[in-house]
Amino acid sequence: MAIIVQKFGGTSVADAEKIRRAAQRVIKAVKNGLKVVVVASARGKQTDQLIADALELNPNPPEREMDQLLSTGEIQTVSLFAMALDAAGYDAISFTGGQIRMITDSVHTKARIKSIDAERIHKQLDEGKIVLVAGFQGIDENENITTLGRGGSDTTAVAIAASLGAEECEIYTDVDGIHTTDPRIVKNAAKIEQISFDEMLELASLGAGVMHIRAVEFGKKYDVKIHVRSSSEEREGTMITSEQPQMEGIAVSGATIQKDMAKIGLVSVDNKPGNAAKIFARLANAKVVVNDIVQTEVSTEKANLSFTIGISDLPAARKAIEQIKDEVNCESVFIREDIAEISVVGVGMRTHYGVAEKLFGALAKAEVNIDSITTSEIRISCVVNKDQSEKALEAVCAAFELDKPVEKRSR
Ligand code: ADP
Ligand code: ASP
Ligand code: MG
């Protein structure tokens, strides 16, 4: 009997009616002869509410206690979900992350999964039960509760699917699949039928919040079939798969916008071996995740260095740079919080020419100034002013015809 993992996001389990509806999805899969593992998020905006509750009592809450608190959101959902299944006449059992030995490292609020006790889940499935696992959480080796970072229930689901050898991991959410860009910002963004792990990794890392990035990493590593789909509509969503030959045919598959960013620039640091290493060692030590790094030599003696980070890492990054700036003989430091990054992504970029020209042309026509540009093999990103960023995204989507399905775009 094949196993399927079904993950329900916060909006899909926001109230009793929605939990009942989600339970019907599960029951349908059981009736189709599948063993089902459900992973669920906290209901509605509960995680935000718990964070607000914590901040009301302490503006700088200890991270261990934060994890202890936030993990309760998903625990409530899975027990309620199990009750709904029981009421419908199905045998179900819910577990916390700790109860299925979802072992993580000890980095509170952004822990990484190390291992899962698949046996415990298998045993319950073999007894004919529907197994529900609270998303977003685990425990470290000292039994402290940890959480996986915002949006982390996707990662719980895909990691469980990988460890159980599940047939498929369905991600039920409030959109009908992955779109070429966030459909809440660009209303006519087209739905994508199939997308490669690499493209989805880029989109997720560039701010497409629809999938947690580490979930995609797990999917790629263990080749888990991921199906992102709507919890309120029946139709097929988007399959995230390994790369298929036809995917090369289209240059740009999607575009992203990242608004919660900051940029730090170090002006005129000494241009000598070891300085970049010193700066980034200090940032790593402060657990700051650095995105794009740009360094330019301005003379044989001096270089300018800048990098972007998530805005939540700014206090830690600011402190780290303060500590290192004199050591690298930096003339001045500038910090910008009014920026956003627009990116286009596509595996076809490896073989198509003219993508950069089209992107910069679209921004020029929209009169958006480009602050800095970074590229990888399958993406181009431009930092722009935050207040121009949505206009920029719309211009880019129009230029690459991201409102149309792939087969209707001009070549
Ligand atoms: P859930 O609570 O189900 O995990 P999320 O809010 O985390 O849901 O993710 C779904 C949201 O992701 C959508 O409502 C949409 O606004 C946003 N999103 C951002 N980029 C994209 C994209 N490229 N395709 C689809 N949705 C996207
Ligand atoms: N409840 C957590 C959050 O809101 C995790 C998740 O929904 O995936 O970020
Ligand atoms: Mg999510």
Spatial strand arrangement across the major sheet: 3-6-2-1-9-11-12-10
Distance between the termini: 44 Å
Largest sheet: 8 strands, mixed
Count every helix, treating DSSP H or I runs of 4 or more residues as helices: 11
Strand element count: 20
The residue-averaged pLDDT reads: 95
Question: What keyword list fits this structure?
Answer:
binds magnesium ion; 411 residues; binds aspartic acid; alpha/beta; 8-stranded mixed beta sheet
Task: Please describe what this structure looks like.
- This protein is an alpha/beta fold.
- Helices cover 33% and strands 26% of the residues.
- It contains eleven helices and 20 strands.
- It has helices at residues 16-31, 46-57, 63-87, 118-126, 153-164, 197-205, 213-222, 275-285, 314-324, 355-365, 389-399, and strands at 3-8, 35-40, 92-95, 103-104, 113-115, 130-134, 137-139, 145-147, 168-173, 194-196, 226-230, 238-241, 254-258, 261-270, 290-297, 302-310, 332-336, 339-345, 372-376, 379-385.
- The strands form five sheets. Strands 3-6-2-1-9-11-12-10 form an eight-stranded mixed β-sheet, sandwiched between helices. The protein has a four-stranded antiparallel β-sheet with strand order 13-18-20-19. It has a four-stranded antiparallel β-sheet with strand order 15-16-14-17, with helices on one face.
- 44% of the residues are buried.
- The protein binds adenosine-5'-diphosphate (ADP), aspartic acid and magnesium ion (MG).
- Magnesium ion is lined by residues 9, 151, 154.
